[in-house]
Amino acid sequence: QVRLVESGGGSVQAGGSLRLSCKTSRYTYSNFCMGWFRQAPGKEREGVATIDSTGSLSYADSVKGRFTISLDNAKSTLYLQMNSLKPEDTDMYYCAARAYLSCQTASWTPAMYAYWGQGTQVTVSS
Predict the structure, then answer these.
(1) Contact 5/116 with Cβ under 8 angstroms?
(2) Are the beta carbons of 24 and 3 closer than 8 angstroms?
(3) What per-residue confidence (pLDDT) applies to 70?
(4) d(CA 94, CA 57)
(5) Tell me: the pLDDT tens digits for 47-95?
(6) In whole angstroms, what is the distance from residue 125 CA to residue 114 CA?
(7) C-alpha to C-alpha distance for 15 and 104, rounded to whole angstroms
(8) Measured distance CA(56)–CA(6) in Å, rounded
């Protein structure tokens, strides 16, 4: 069983920055995909950024150039550095992971991920 625990959310003014962290239990799969998703009340969960075991990175168009996903294997921690935040970035953010499948396949589909964190709230005020 893989456990994911997010932290780092909070409230910030537009233009500010936050760094989200997702601590994972020992994740030893040689082939995996991990990502950050976000969801507002009443809306579908949407992908923000993904990273996989090949080092491949992907970003949603809405966050390209502002967000950076990274993985520290030594600390078993996934990060999302968010800069130039906008009010429309306000959402609950979740980290997700799956094994045995890289991000080349359906990486933006939430149902393709087996493991999820509990979420961390990000609020950006104008």
Answers:
(1) no
(2) yes
(3) 96
(4) 17
(5) 999 999 888 999 999 999 999 999 998 888 999 999 999 999 999 999 9
(6) 33
(7) 32
(8) 22
The single residue listed with the structure tokens 């080092």 is 55
User: At which residue do the structure tokens 């950006």 appear?
Assistant: 124
Q: φ and ψ at 33, to 5 degrees?
A: -140, 135
Would you call 57 exposed, middle or buried from its count of C-beta atoms within 10 A (0-12, 13-18, 19+)? middle
Residue type, 80: L
Distance CA 67, CA 82 (A): 4
- Which CA distances in Å does 23 have to 73, 92, 95, 126? 10, 17, 9, 30
Mean pLDDT (whole number) for 14-38: 90
Reading the block at residue 85, the tokens are 């935040």
DSSP 4-70: EEEE--EEEETT--EEEEEEES----SSEEEEEEEE-TTS--EEEEEEETT--EEE-TTTTTTEEEE
